[in-house]
């Protein structure tokens, strides 16, 4: 059967009244949970499994999938308004979303995020539909050596995220990797840097660090600024000019593609995708210096990437039975409870589940857009709250988010500690983004490096003899060499410059680099 | 002045101390001998510690630029798209940074836009920040013994009133409302139990 | 529920009595301590999953909760509490510190292995075994086109050139997959210390890495191996069950291959250290009833769990035996951490 008739079959399933109701419930619950800082889709899905149990398997999965991509869709709201990432995948959205909101463009930032999310989700679904089975095989060709090379390439983004002082950016990144290594080492079960605190045995939860160095540090900054009133003006307007849409669309397109492919790789997921999307977009931009001050492309790229990745992560989940992230791990559990065994045979054994879910994602994305756009002015009003009230409320939200994650008071102390660290870093010109980048990529990089060397019995040649890994490493070297050479030539620290982007945007990057030079 | 800003030298020394401590811990990590592993658990940490030390050294010899902007918001070139008000305020930390060059501009520029009362009560921003950290610490400390409902209500009401929110009735209603909404929403809706303290619900 | 304390207790006794009769009729030998078990829970039962939401323990806890409540096997509510951290150690100390018969936890081999690795102050002896609920077996898989024909063959190849054969598993060295593999290799006459074991984050990931050609073989739970085996991408060499497994008719057990070894990924429930006989008897009863329900059997089948109920006493003996076996394997491989 060709894809179109299969999709028609899928829509037949997805558009049944029952499934329409549940996709609506799913994305609604997802958006709400995504908006609350800290609370992620994982707990939401876990808690909806009992509800899903006893439903028809397809309906249940349509709903649970809706919770997941709904949360990624809604997660940008608190990133943009409060600098408090709703879920891990939206940390990068705050880099430009929050500055834009502070400059009075909250409604606009939210609108860009919603439209980019929609685009990312939709592009993701189209790709999922067209090439999922083939992609699964590509994902399998990624072994430890390839992952290592990918992580190295990702880490070179530090150069573009570092801002004005490369030294400080690198220090920040090294600290991030150091935090990533805390806990029981998965490769040898050695306990590292835990100071004998059992609470640290499983490492430091990513979201605690992100909420600390972004949300709490921002609260300190608000306090130090000593302005009591909330913002006013046009915060709630979500009107975009044609020029703005012209800026947003290509960035979101690139982000969607990049995000989807990153999502397909197990282990990478929405968070990594959004960072890759952001840094790639900054590298190829003609105006990299405006990233971080409210650049439209800086919102569009990570938002489309994380939504693309959320959809992309269904490729390994459904066609290989491999969960690429914590969220898809729990979805896998849910599928098993419902009697659906994902794997290479799923497309032939249970086509109604696969095509029903794919079709429901089209529906779900439209529902999300329709649901979120009218809510933007309401959400944006948050910024009009007097600061004296906003400050304790943000603290409470962070505390609830972190506590709901681990039920541990210890983690709340960590949150406060990272808040203080984040503020001190900010005051002294250390960017927080490289720290987060080091944290998400560092652990994966070490793990895959050691797996690869274990397989090759210690021979480092494994990284350069495999074609994919060698290509990725070469790209990494190139993307470092460009800015460094230029920095040497100009004798001042490199902020962010060209160098091929990851995946999709390579052609453009060459072009823009030429223009930037001329 | 910018609170808690230190010279590059001071920061470099602090980082070097962290790096040194980290290296000590890294070198104390036992080697894994049960199975032959090409990369020891301590390999990467040793490298990281060394690199951090080197970076600290580099930083030590960099002069502290008087007006180095905060880095996650490289100074203020307004985006072509910016449609809202762009006076005074630049991006989040760009503003703190601009304060580095001309003392007190941070507060001033903000006051220009809004002309409202100040946040908090202490005149020294550093003390104000420390007091704030203290209040969050108190919140965390009491969270489990008193339960989420009571602690959160007290914290939100107390902080907001202290920071200068004068509509006490609204504040009281709001703090009770937010605490209750979160508590019951989480425990009933999401099945996530927040600390209940000495109460039976 | 809380208003009249007497009524529920009467109901409890009646229900308990009835269940014993039922059980006696149904399976004759299990569960029937004595019918005078007066104790019944006075407040909601807290079922601790010492892991985050979504993991195997969480799944076990939430499945049990659902079946117990839906089938009205308990008079009180059942609440799942997630206490992640320390590979379980945080949750175990949480149960131990309260020492409350209403606070139980779900468990599996890590309660033996984590203390053996020296990473927890609490071991299985600090708790009261209540029930063994289900089990899953370990399987050893190779890619379909692999030249390796049997588990013996695999061990031979490892013995000849240990560096050339990499075997992946879904957990760290010294934890479940590795211990099972090392034990089997040892029983087959190989040297477990020579194993080139590559740890991944879960059996499913290990399987795809193997099918992708990055490692040569995988040790993983039967359920995690299933998708790739059913699609023909991978082939099972052996399963670690003592008896042939119905769901894997074509896969020989190690015993059938002439290797005297079995390994059990068992799942069960334990309570705090101090429990009275009446309390133990109560839980013995409800869990025995639980595994008999249709709901439970359906879910177990979906999740790839084999039925293997053990009552409190059997479960306790079983734990002691497994502990001794695992300790031996870990000693052999040099991964034992509680004595160093």
TrEMBL record, chain A:
It comes from the Bacteria. Keywords: Membrane, Transmembrane, Transmembrane helix. Residues 493-518 are annotated as: Disordered. The chain crosses the membrane at residues 20-39, 51-74, 80-98, 110-135, 147-163, 170-186, 206-224, 257-278, 320-341, 353-376, 388-416, 428-445, 457-482. Residues 498-507 have a biased composition (Gly residues). Residues 20-437 form the DUF112 domain. Pfam families: TctA. This is Tripartite tricarboxylate transporter permease.
Automatic annotation (TrEMBL), chain B:
InterPro entries: DUF1468. The chain crosses the membrane at residues 42-61, 129-157, 169-186. The keyword Transmembrane applies. It comes from the Bacteria. Residues 66-113 are annotated as: Disordered. Residues 71-80 have a biased composition (Low complexity). Keywords: Membrane, Transmembrane, Transmembrane helix. The keyword Transmembrane applies. Residues 12-195 form the DUF1468 domain. This is Tripartite tricarboxylate transporter TctB family protein.
UniProtKB/TrEMBL annotation, chain C:
InterPro entries: BUG, Bug_dom1. It comes from the Bacteria. SUPFAM superfamilies: Periplasmic binding protein-like II (SSF53850). Pfam families: TctC. Belongs to the UPF0065 (bug) family. This is Tripartite tricarboxylate transporter substrate binding protein. It comes from Halostreptopolyspora alba.
